[in-house]
Amino acid sequence: MEGQDTHNNKDRFLAQWLEGELSDNELKALVSDADYNAFIKLRKGVDTYVALEATTHETFAKIQNKISAKQTKVRQFNNNTWYIGIAASIILFIGLFSIFGNNIVAINTNYGEQKTITLLDGSEVILNSKSTITYDEDNWETNRILNLDGEAYFKVKKGNAFKVITKNGEVTVLGTQFNVNSISDLFEVVCFEGKVRVSSKGEDHILLPTRSVRRINGNAIEAWETVASNPTWIKGESSFKSVPLKYVIPALESQYQIKIHAKGINSNIIYTGSFTHNDLDIALKTVFKSLQIQYFEKEKGNIYLSSK
Predict the structure, then answer these.
(1) Which of 66, 118, 191, 194 stands 20 to 30 A from 208 (CA)?
(2) β partners of residue 118
(3) Strands 177-183 vs 144-155: parallel, antiparallel or unpaired
């Protein structure tokens, strides 16, 4: 019973604090240090999310207004006031921590979208379309570790080790500029400045400027040299060098928000070339005409391929 009472008191204090009826200092005096820190993280998480994702601010405000409206309506019944406050607080608490975890920041891009993110140490990340990065804001100063799903270009400030973790491998640097592409079973890293260490499936490779490595479909690591000073996609053009077509198709889909149906062709055919991000018709012609693959739009946004 005592444990249950303590839990109920904590919920009540949280509800009062969220409604502005308790100050930070008053809350700190009523709950444990661990609970207080968790509640402060909740509020900090809201501020961080709104700042990073301004486009979702309106939606978040609507949710807050709905919660406030429900609380105001039920306050007419004095006995139920705290139950509604507690319920709203618990919903908000659980919802936010499902997004942030222990202050985990998550940033993603939509179809055809790029985002430039400045990290806490001043490092910069340019995120390509349909890609996601996550990192722990609290531990960033001592552990510059970032998770990537998709493609991103990094400009890392000098400091302690900076690590990019993907499902296909890891990249570790001290301060440099490099590009990482990890989509499906494609893993590609290009170093443009400084020095990069790439770890994938038990293999380690050190990259100097203009050097790059790639692993496709679990095969052996390939290495080559590039003459580019930065990835072409940040300037509106996706480029490929001897890549199976099945990896080019998702890139087209993520840039133009289309669905390409490729059952009628050999998706392992090798493609070298590029396509623009600004004109779908030109992009389709550039890729498929060069491979003598026919294409047509049967329904809006659905592109069908044929080898005949």
Answers:
(1) 118
(2) 124
(3) antiparallel
Share of the chain above pLDDT 90, in %: 58
Quick check: 75 pLDDT over 50? no
CATH of 106-225, one of 2.40.10.10, 2.40.170.20, 2.60.120.1440, 1.10.3720.10: 2.60.120.1440
94 token code pair: 């659980």
- Convert the pLDDT of each residue in 15-68 to its tens digit: 777 777 777 777 777 877 667 666 766 665 544 444 444 444 444 555 555 555
Which neighbouring-strand residues pair with 104?
Answer: 136
List alpha helices for the chain, DSSP H. Answer: 2-18, 24-30, 33-52, 57-74, 81-100, 245-256, 280-284
For residues 97 and 27, give the distance between their C-alpha atoms in angstroms, rounded to a whole number.
19
User: What is the radius of gyration, based on Cα positions, of the chain?
Assistant: 25
Q: What is the pTM of this model?
A: 0.67
Class of domain 236-306: alpha beta
Token pair for 240: 């490929």
